[in-house]
Structures are given as C-alpha cells and as structure tokens.
Amino acid sequence: MNLRTDLPPIPFIDLAAQRRRLGPAVDAAIARVLGHCQFILGPEVRAFEAELAAFCGAKHAVTCASGTDALVLGLRARGIGPGDAVLCPSFTFCATAEVAALVGATPVFVDVDAATFNIDVNGIAGAIDVARSLGLTPKAIIPVDLFGLAADHAAIAAAAEAAGLYILDDAAQGFGATFNNRRLGSFGHATATSFFPAKPLGCYGDGGAVMTDDAELADVMRSLRMHGHGSDKYDNVRIGLASRLDTMQAAILIEKLKIFPDEIVARDRIARRYNEGLADVAITPTVPAGSTSVWAQYTLRISGGRRDALAASLKAEGIPTAIYYPIPLHLQQAYKHYPVGRGGVAVSTRLAGEVISLPIHAYLDEATQDRIIDATRRVLKR
Ligand SMILES: Cc1ncc(COP(=O)(O)O)c(C=O)c1O
Fold it and tell me: Which of 54, 74, 134, 251 has the highest CB neighbour count under 10 A?
C-alpha cells in the first residue's frame, strides 16, 4: 500500500537507450550526408524508400515530411476533396480526420471496437448512409492501426470495396505489425506511416511515408510532394506541397530499420509480460487471431472511474502514464460539427474515460517493468 517515492523516475519512452545501441552507426550515417551535402532527396532517401518498400512488401514507398503529410498525399493523389466523405474512427489521433478536412472533404466518424480500439467494421455502412443523406459522396476510408495493432483489414476491405471506397490505411502507430502474416503497407490502396520520434519506427525529427502497389498513385504522390512537378522540375502540372523526408532523417532511418525487427520482438515480449502481470486487475489489450501489434502504446482499460486516480498514484512514484485519447474527435471543438455514422460513437466516448497507457519501448528492462506492474497492481487492488 505504501507509495515508493524513493525510486528514480521512469521515462515513458527511452529514446536515449536506443541511441546508445545504435551508437556510431548513426553518427557515421549523418557524417556521410554532411559529406555529400545533398540534403533534399539525396541518395539516402531513395535507398531508404527501396528498403522500406521491401520491408513491408509494398511495390512503392514515397517518403515525405510527416505522417500527416503522408495522409494528405494519399488523399490528394486520389483527387479527394470538397463534396467527398472520408470515413474514419472517432477514437484516434486528430491527424486521421484532420487530413480529410485539410483537403476540403468531410470526415464522417465511425465508432471503434472496445476490445481492439480499431474501427468497428459494422459501423461502415451506417456512415456511408449518413454521408449520402447529407449529399456527400463517400469516397474513402482511413482505418487506423491504433496503438500498434493491425486493424481487421480483411473485413475493412470487404466493406469498403462493396461501397467502392478508396482505403488509405493510417499505420502511423502500427507500421511493422502484421495482419494474416503480411506486414502493414500492403493492405488497402495505400498506407501512410509516421516517423515521429516516439513512433515504433521513428527518426530524429519529423518524417513520414506512403506505401502503395499502384505505380500511377506513387508517381502522383512523388509529384505532389515536390510542388506538383511534371517531367521537368519547373513545369508544374498540379498544385502540390513541399513535403520531403530530409536526407539526414533517411540516413538515420536506414540504420534504425536494421534493428526494427528485433525491437518489434522485444516490444511484444514486454507487452506479454504486462498482460501476465496485470490481467487480473485491469482490462489488458486484446490481440485478435490474425493480427499482431508493434505496441506503439500499451493501453489498459480501467472502468469505474479509477483511471485518473491510478495515473496520479503512479505519477507520485515516478511512473509516467498517458491518456490516449482523453477526448474522442467527435467531441472536440474543431471536429464536433462533422457527421457521425448511424449507430453513433458511444464506444469511442466511453473509451476516452477508461484508457491509460503505461511506459513501453524495446529497452524497458524487467526490473523497471516489475516496478510499474507492482505499483499498478497495488493501486488497483486497494
Ligand atoms: C494515428 C496517427 N495518425 C497520424 C499521425 C500523424 O503523424 P505525424 O505526427 O508524423 O504528422 C499520428 C502521429 O502523431 C498518429 O498517431
């Protein structure tokens, strides 16, 4: 019952531990870029794109300046804009819906499944109906592989294809995870990911990429990320943006991708240990058969209004937690005027009051994890 306030604070994500492991390899990679000075779309960008595509089994990878831009490129390349509806979950990071609004389309919120936190496929038809009733053309769906768990891509494809929807997977958190033994990046028409430092595969700044098997779509995205250029750099054939992955970040990511498979194994081992240690005191995350998770977050559900007390007690013991996400998008000021699918979004609203994420990263040692597990158990058993 006693709080342990005598122990050192634990980091939520320990980027420094990974930095120590990568050591001189990253320094050398950065030095090479400083040597050739091709800071924009230099040789490392092309090399990384080839490795990224090979890693996830996609034909093309187009890198860009952030995960948000990756989603924008994915929508713009398909011509999605005003009058179009883009279905997305309400329980996600804001960028998923933000990009629909940014291209002038209308996000339509779909509820999520309480067990997986991912889009509830049963809500897709009702969201399409609502979109049509508002005079919108349902054009796309952005499923999210939330907290690192691959969504049910077979069911999503079936529901979306029946309605002719373009599927842009938001794998910002799930990149590296698999569905039916295939890595994310090869589901739907295109897959966006983020290299934000805290992501499972992060760089040392902002970065993102879109993967696709569609050569034409990839060409349009390459044009869009460079102001919409045509065959000549100064002949612009469409309105684009300036959104490239820095060569320096590509060089860093080449080194990080080498250890990523090993880190995925470590993250999974740590998540399983949490499950074993906490399953009798909290609702631990579910990984359905056919899906794997890269555990961008390890998220418990605490019902009965005890979630915030747990966060406060752990904080007092130097254990950080995070609430992803405290407000579902359909209740946020910038998004609450957008439509919600038939059937509502009650699960998203409920989860926002129950979820709490514990520290997780590939370098979390057992002693530190035991401290987190013990403290969590102590509070929840009170
Ligand atoms: C689900 C989701 N989508 C999109 C993004 C946007 O990525 P970025 O921060 O690289 O723009 C993030 C990350 O923050 C995310 O978690």
Answer: 74
Tell me which residue of 78, 92, 68 sits closest to 351, measured CA to CA: 92
What pLDDT, in 10s, does the model give residues 195-207? 999 999 999 999 9
Per-residue pLDDT reduced to its tens digit, 128-147: 999 999 999 999 999 999 99
How do strand 190-194 and strand 298-301 relate by DSSP bridges? unpaired
1 has a pLDDT exceeding 80:
no
Residues 340-365 have pLDDT tens digits of 999 999 999 999 999 999 999 999 99
Nearest Cα residue to 92 out of 39, 51, 131, 149: 149
Ligand 1 atom nearest the C-alpha of 207 is 10
Distance 93 CA to ligand 1 centre (A): 7
Q: Which atom of ligand 1 is nearest to the CA of 194?
A: 10
Is residue 243 lining ligand 1, measured as CB closer than 6 Å?
no
Record the pTM: 0.97
Beta strands at 137-141 and 84-89: parallel, antiparallel or unpaired? parallel
In a mutational test of the pocket of ligand 1, which residue from 146, 184, 194 has the highest number of ligand atoms less than 8 Å from its CB? 194
Q: Which long-range contacts (CB under 8 A, 24 or more apart) does 327-330 make?
A: 327/352, 328/90, 328/91, 328/109, 328/352, 329/90, 329/91, 329/92, 329/94, 329/96, 329/97, 329/107, 329/109, 330/90, 330/109
Which protein residue's CA is at the shortest distance from atom 10 of ligand 1?
67
Between the alpha carbon of residue 180 and those of residues 117, 119, 193, 291, 382, the distances in Å are 18, 18, 19, 6, 41
CA distance 369 to 10: 10
Q: Is the CB of 172 under 6 A from ligand 1?
A: yes
CA of 30 to the centre of ligand 1 (A): 25
In single-letter form, the type of residue at position 166 comes to Y
